[in-house]
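Deliverable D2.4 — example input (structure tokens):
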């Protein structure tokens, strides 16, 4: 499997199945080298395929929900243990210091609700729990927001794909355009943030 295949939800599902979906949700939720995985479109596609009988929907929902919670927890405790060392770590393919900084800025702006909001923003969702750990966010508070965010993101997107397949005739014709829309919508916030920062610099 090539790197490009790892960005293709249908390739991931056909190759790795249910275990692959759950593993990727776990990695992208808080393990810093999972930031490049297509979490949003993967969940939606998995839900759609479940509606067509290719995946067990209940097992899928439980699996991605638990994986999202555990992934964030790993990120939180990793950040808590490593702390400021993250900001002096050298860049590599799996780690970019700018992503930690980006997540930190987002966290400062939105506070505790970042743990929920970040679920819908690629890259930020991977590093937000790490930043929460670095900032010594109260664990009980973190866990509550983590569970809510995992519920809305993992269950919500999966059920969107599932109900599309159940209620829309010949839904398979529309899945690719919908996935493209999901990807575009999910990357709009960071793009808007970058443009906003550039505008401030130019001024």
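Example output (designed residues):
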């Amino acid at each position: 499997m090539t790197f490009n295949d790892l960005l293709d939800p249908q390739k991931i599902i056909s190759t790795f199945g249910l275990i692959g979906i759950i593993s990727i949700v776990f990695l992208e939720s808080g393990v810093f080298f999972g930031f490049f995985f297509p979490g949003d479109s993967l969940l939606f596609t998995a839900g759609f395929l479940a509606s067509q009988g290719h995946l067990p929907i209940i097992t899928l929902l439980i699996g991605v929900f638990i994986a999202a919670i555990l992934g964030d927890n790993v990120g939180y405790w990793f950040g808590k243990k490593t702390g400021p060392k993250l900001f002096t770590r050298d860049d590599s393919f799996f780690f970019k210091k700018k992503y930690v900084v980006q997540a930190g800025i987002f966290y400062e702006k939105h506070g505790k609700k970042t743990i929920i909001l970040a679920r819908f923003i690629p890259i930020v969702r991977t590093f937000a729990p790490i930043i929460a750990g670095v900032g010594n966010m109260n664990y009980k508070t973190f866990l509550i927001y983590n569970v809510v965010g995992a519920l809305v993101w993992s269950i919500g997107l999966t059920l969107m794909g599932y109900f599309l397949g159940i209620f829309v005739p010949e839904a398979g014709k529309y899945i690719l355009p919908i996935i493209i829309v999901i990807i575009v919508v999910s990357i709009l916030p960071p793009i808007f943030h970058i443009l906003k920062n550039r505008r401030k610099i130019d001024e």
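The two ends are 46 Å apart (CA to CA).
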